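Researcher: Structure for this, please.
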Amino acid sequence: MADQLARQGISNEEFEHLGEPLRVRAREDLRNNWWWLNNVLLYAQSQPAVLADARSLPTIFSTLSRDDINRAATHFIAAKSNVVGASPAN
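Model: Predicted structure, token format:
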């Protein structure tokens, strides 16, 4: 399945079906104190960019395109498809 995703990408229908719940979740997360505490404030002091990144989540999810997803899938899934073998030493 991962190989197929890396080769063919997701369809328009899949993108639309999966995209809206992610956009809704991002908007809901920004209104949730638990989410801020556990996903943002915990890291904000040592990684200040986390705060700006969190605030931009709705924008990121609304501007993310199907092509963006397919490029990422090709890059990351194909990279993980490499096989490395090892033999015990004699």
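Researcher: Any notable elements?
Model: DSSP finds six helices and no strands in the chain. The radius of gyration is 18 Å.
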